[in-house]
Write a structure and sequence with these properties.
Mean pLDDT: 92
Number of strands: 9
Strand content: 15-25%
Order of helices and strands: HHHHHEEHEHEHEEHHHEHEE
Distance between the termini: 55 Å
Number of domains: 2
Largest sheet: 7 strands, mixed
CATH topology of the largest domain: Rossmann fold
Radius of gyration: 20 Å
Length: 282
């Protein structure tokens, strides 16, 4: 194992920082040895087989192209659960874990409680919420059928039931469940404008799905305004709306909700001190 870590450092030192290489080394070791993190840390003297070395080399070559490690190994961890990911879904971020944490802390599910995730991607939000709040019935939509295929796999993998369906929140067509209302609506929608492309990291820009990253046009609040309109018609009285926003547009997103008569609008800071978590009541 020590030789493997040294090999990884030597191969990647011109591509990633020392801290990134250390993190990548742990993920590679865990994946190749098919063990958990504790096993890897306890087996530093383990000899790597020729086949394992070949796999490690293949992973390193992909990393040199700045392909995210999560896509290379085909999975990631979110809120203590394992999720399959590929280039059809965004890689879940720690900030989204914070969004989920707020929902778990503030919501009090009861029989008949329903939640909806808009733009579900890998399904990490509703799957985690149902896992932690088993009383909740979860629905989740996405415009991408390929993303929904991944989300369904993740629901099976994590042994929960979520109703996934395809829907474009922007086009305003008839909602497939016309009689349903929800106690909680959550979303981590696209908010990056095309003019911001130049400042983005290569690993994100080249590999993560642009449909889940960028707003069509130049209005970063487009999805927030549309989701707010949708939520006004679909939330139960006193229902909650939770959204992840960008640090650049947090204040504007909160103002947009206030303008649409939401109450108790809160803009909360994430662990890095950025305005990223938006909570409002209907």
């Amino acid at each position: 194992m020590k030789t493997m870590y040294r090999f990884i450092r030597e191969q990647l030192r011109n591509y990633y920082s020392d801290s990134e290489i250390q993190s990548l080394g742990c993920l590679i070791a865990e994946f190749v040895c098919i063990r958990d993190k504790s096993f890897v840390s306890e087996c530093k003297d383990k000899q790597i087989s020729l086949n394992e070395h070949i796999i490690i080399q293949e992973i390193i070559e992909e990393l040199k192209k700045y392909r995210p490690i999560q896509y290379i190994i085909g999975e990631t961890e979110f809120y203590g659960l394992k999720f399959a990911v590929d280039e059809n879904v965004l890689i879940p971020r720690p900030e989204t874990e914070e969004l989920v944490e707020w929902i778990i802390k503030e919501e009090k599910p009861r029989p008949g409680y329903r939640l909806l995730d808009i733009g579900t991607g890998s399904g990490c939000i509703p799957i985690t919420l149902v896992k932690r709040m088993p009383e909740a019935e979860a629905f989740a939509l996405d415009i991408s059928e390929k993303a929904l295929d991944i989300a369904r796999q993740n629901a099976i993998r994590n042994q929960v039931n979520v109703h996934f369906f395809q829907y474009d929140i922007l086009n305003g067509n008839s909602f497939p469940f016309p009689s349903l209302t929800f106690d909680c609506i959550v979303s981590n929608p696209p908010y990056i404008t095309l003019k911001e492309k130049a400042s983005m990291e290569k690993n994100v820009l080249d590999y993560e799905p642009h449909q889940a990253l960028f707003v069509p046009g130049d209005n970063p609040l487009l999805f927030y305004e549309r989701i707010a309109d949708f939520a006004r018609n679909r939330l139960t009285e006193g229902g909650s709306l939770y959204m992840e926003t960008s640090a650049l547009n947090g204040q504007a997103s909160a103002k947009a909700l206030e303008n649409k008569q939401f109450r108790s609008v809160r803009l909360l800071k994430d662990i890095s001190g950025n305005d990223r978590i938006l909570i409002a009541k209907l």
